[in-house]
Amino acid sequence: MTDTSQQRVTEPAEVVLGRANSEISMRSQIFQTIFGKERYDWNVDLKAGTIKFTSATKIVTAPVQVIGTYNTLDGTFLWGWDHPSVAKPLGADARLARQFGQLNDLPSFTTRKKSNALKVRHGVSPPWHFIYLAPKVPIGDRRA
Fold first, then answer.
1. pTM for this model (two decimals)
2. Which of 41, 98, 106, 137 has the smallest set of CB atoms within 10 Å of its CB?
């Protein structure tokens, strides 16, 4: 864990939540700038530790961290910090989120499997909004 990651984990929850939402907004804008309205497919290669977005004119590959998985059949979220399909290196950022939850007494981050995972409860956003806890990762290699 880098010093920056540790600092993020120990910041007050309100600060982290605010920055997390800003971070997601920024990354969404960058993604929109790259792909625009173009249709794209995506694929995660857990062995390589990458995510690849492919459109008719672009391929973008970036390192991936598995924060968790969402099951559309039952509405549950399973954290990457204790996921049987996630190799330890790919769950590092999820473990940061768990540490953040432990330090801030947030059961949403310390409960392995959550029901109704898409709902915002008690001011706490769904787990993936905490991308801010993750180390800064470059957007990836873009090939056109």
1. 0.74
2. 41
